[in-house]
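haha ok so turns out i had the wrong file open the whole time. this is the CORRECT one, sorry everyone. sequence first:
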Amino acid sequence: MATQHVFEGHCLCGKVGIKLQADSNAMSVCHCSMCRTWAGGPLFAAEAGPGALQFNGEEHITVYPSSDWAERGFCKHCGTNLFYRLKSGEMHAVSVGLFGDTQDWAFEQQIFIDEKPAYYAFANQTGELTGAEVFAQFAPSEGSD
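then structure:
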């Protein structure tokens, strides 16, 4: 039986609380230019599937449609970045900074590695995916709509 990890946190002003129930403590970093613009640097995130997230104060969340397939959520009072999610609802990437400094995260993967600027590098040994490899994972199968 897999260990269930429960992470609880909140935005800066505390109006949005978040609870993540995950099968692991894995986190990844996205280096895409959009995440870097949105987060002010690479986005450190934990992946959450359907039903893995609970929000308290959901009425304080504003969503920005950042592409045809995804959107980004933030607190409309303090501006804290909360999540990136596919519009299909099958995946959320939740900012691990919401959960404080006490979590034992396992840094496992870097995505959009081909967009990472040269001015920073991580010493961790992780998996790496280019933007094309990430999009290939989410592309619809041929013959489907």
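The CA atoms of residues 2 and 58 lie 29 Å apart.
again sry for the mixup
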